[in-house]
Design brief:
The complex is a heterodimer of chains A (248) and B (302).
Chain A lengths: L1 E12 L2 E12 L3 E5 L6 H8 L9 E9 L2 E2 L5 H7 E4 L10 H11 L5 H14 L3 H4 L12 H14 L4 E5 L7 H14 L4 E5 L3 H7 L2 E6 L2 E7 H6 L4 H7 L5
Parallel strand pairs in A: 3-8, 3-9, 6-7, 7-8
Antiparallel strand pairs in A: 1-2, 1-4, 4-5, 9-10
Chain B lengths: L1 H19 L3 H34 L5 H5 L2 E2 L4 E2 L2 H32 L4 H15 L2 H15 L6 H25 L3 H9 L4 H30 L2 H4 L21 H11 L5 H32 L3
Antiparallel strand pairs in B: 1-2
Helix pairs in contact in B: 2-12, 4-7, 4-9, 5-7, 6-7, 7-9, 8-9, 9-12, 11-12
The chains are: A alpha/beta (248), B mainly alpha (302).
Bound molecules: adenosine-5'-triphosphate (ATP) and magnesium ion.
Chain lengths: 248, 302
């Protein structure tokens, strides 16, 4: 099934042309790895999918992005963001307790009942493999957690809203190998129920977890294919150079 | 050309270093001493003011002084009407200025785009802060007393004071709102929260200490000013309590001015006692601002 269908997408921030003529089809319930050197537009691409770019005053976009067959620009932005969750590069807990962090999305969706909130919090924390570590201190500040725990908290917070798609923007860039392995493990389980788009600077990570891989360079999509194909026989020489570490 | 740059650059700082390094420890000590003395000089006037006022005013502070009306042409009795008048004026000013100030700060920080209108508003706020207080008084007289026909009344005075402290409240609130990291707003929005929900649940709770602090500082300013209430509310001598917001009241700063310059032979105890009460009110508010700020800072979670 197709989750996203992107046609002739162009994005500008003021004068900067940050996404050039991107056409793409993203399947559901699988992991798409997005790789590319710094400044290639990966984050911009991700933030476009849940309409976060619009928070910038000078953002402009042309083309069409269909999400489950519907044009995202015509949907209500809050609904889009509830259906398409995002985990940022650095752990970004909100300045409140662990419980309130995870319950936040549920709360703003209008669930006032504390019991329902608690159920959602527990479920999400278990999905993010964090429950056992925090179940006894749910009302302490989220900032008391370690970096890796904070990142899993952010994943739990996103899951609690019950999105269909989860966008990860370099979720492991600040984490040690063990925390990274935990996050990757969570992603591999999650892809059974969610569509996952993973932007990563770590080419090996892309190879480990991605079903498909897209390579961006200078705001353009160079190629996108099955991960095995990209890493064994890429069509474009620039892709080959990048995954061999020749530039970027 | 490249070469000359390369050779020149490291050479010049080295030269400077040489000149300065005669006795860096001594230089540093001297500088420290100088800075320390300058800082100490700030404390001296504050300390002196408090000491002198307390010394001369404390003997005059009795229960009767605080609770009685002025008697014998203000030469004896108490200052209760003036205390109450100041409390009324300050409360009125805050009831008017806090909502408007807070809402406009929220608008400027969270909703407004950086366009011409926004710049104009910010410029207006800066200018409002720079207007001399006596001009506010005259403005209040023209607008509230005369045009709106509120007369010289608590309402006119409170509104005038409210406008005067508006820029203080807006500036402090704006600063507090803008000090909440942008990334928090983004995280909140990414979870599907609307702009208002983000403000309500993330931005305001983390800015509230700054907002309260700014408000209290504004109150302290309002309590102490004479000029804005001179034409709009303050009564020269009114030994009774106001019945409604359309009545005149006495107020501490104006009362102090009156008994110090307009009425002959007022006992020093009464004059300094009045000054002490006013000073205590303002210092108390500033202290409250500090305490609240500390409280919230401890609670702050990032
Ligand atoms: N809010 C913005 N305002 C202006 N320009 C922006 C904005 N966001 C992104 N850009 C520009 O878009 C281009 C792509 O940036 P983007 O953050 O998407 O790169 P990236 O591939 O995620 O890089 P990195 O690997 O360093 O995270 C850059 O040239 C950047 O300057
Ligand atoms: Mg990025």
């Amino acid at each position: 099934m197709v989750e996203f269908l992107i046609k002739d997408l162009n994005i500008w921030f003021g004068q900067i042309h940050a996404m050039k003529n991107v056409n793409m089809e993203i399947g559901s319930k699988q992991i798409l790895s997005v790789i590319g050197p710094a400044n290639s537009g990966k984050t911009t691409f991700l933030r476009m999918l849940n309409r976060l770019n619009e928070l910038n005053d000078n953002f402009r976009m042309t083309g069409e992005v269909l999400f489950g067959g519907r044009d995202i620009v015509e949907m209500d932005p809050e609904t889009v963001r509830k259906k398409i969750g995002m985990v940022f590069a650095l752990p970004l807990p909100l300045p409140m307790s662990i419980f309130d962090n995870v319950a936040y999305g549920v709360k703003v969706s209008g669930v006032r009942n504390r019991k329902l909130q608690a159920a959602a919090v527990e479920k999400a924390l278990k999905q993010a493999y964090l429950w056992d570590e925090v179940k006894d201190r749910l009302d302490t500040s989220a900032f008391k957690l370690s970096g890796g725990q904070q990142q899993r908290l952010c994943i739990a917070r996103t899951l609690a809203v019950e999105p269909r798609v989860i966008l990860f923007d370099e979720p492991c860039s600040g984490l040690d190998p063990i925390s990274t392995a935990k996050v990757e493990e969570a992603m591999l389980v999650l892809k059974k129920d969610y569509t996952i788009i993973l932007v990563t600077n770590n080419v090996k990570q892309a190879a480990r977890v991605g079903d498909r891989t897209a390579f961006f360079l200078s705001s353009e999509l160079v190629e996108m294919d099955g991960t095995d194909k990209i890493f064994t026989a890429p069509r474009d020489k620039r892709t080959d150079d990048y995954i061999r570490g020749k530039f970027g | 050309m490249n070469d000359s740059n390369v050779t020149e650059c490291p050479a010049s700082p080295a030269l400077k270093l040489k000149k300065r390094s005669r006795d860096p420890v001594l230089t540093q000590r001297l500088a420290f001493a100088f800075l320390f003395v300058s800082t100490l000089l700030i404390i001296v006037p504050v300390g002196l003011i408090i000491v002198i006022i307390v010394q001369k005013g404390l003997p005059g502070i009795t229960w009767q002084f605080l609770s009685d009306i002025p008697r014998q042409g203000m030469r004896s009795g108490g200052i209760f009407p003036a205390i109450l008048g100041t409390i009324y004026l300050v409360s009125g000013a805050i009831v008017f200025a806090l909502p408007i100030g807070l809402l406009s700060a929220v608008y400027l920080s969270e909703y407004a785009r950086g366009n011409f209108l926004t710049r104009l508003i910010k410029l207006a706020i800066v200018n409002l802060a720079g207007v001399p207080s006596v001009v506010y008084g005259l403005f209040g007289l023209a607008l509230f007393v005369t045009f709106f026909k509120f007369g010289a009344s608590i309402l006119s005075g409170a509104l005038t004071l409210g406008i005067m402290i508006l820029p203080i409240i807006i500036t402090a609130s704006l600063e507090a709102l803008e000090s909440v990291p942008h990334s928090f707003r983004e995280a909140s929005r990414s979870l599907g929260a609307s702009r208002w929900q983000t403000i309500r649940y993330v931005v305001l709770p983390n800015a509230i200490s700054g907002i309260i602090t700014g408000t209290i500082l504004g109150l302290g300013r309002a309590a102490g000013e004479t000029a804005p209430i001179l034409f709009t509310v303050a009564a020269f001598y009114l030994p009774q309590l106001p019945g409604s917001i359309f009545d005149q009241v006495m107020a501490l700063p104006y009362h102090l001015y009156v008994i110090s310059t307009q009425v002959p032979n007022v006992d020093e105890k009464i004059r300094y006692g009045t000054a002490l009460v006013l000073l205590a009110m303002v210092l108390f508010m500033n202290l409250a601002a500090v305490v609240i700020r500390c409280r919230f800072r401890k609670k702050k979670k990032w």
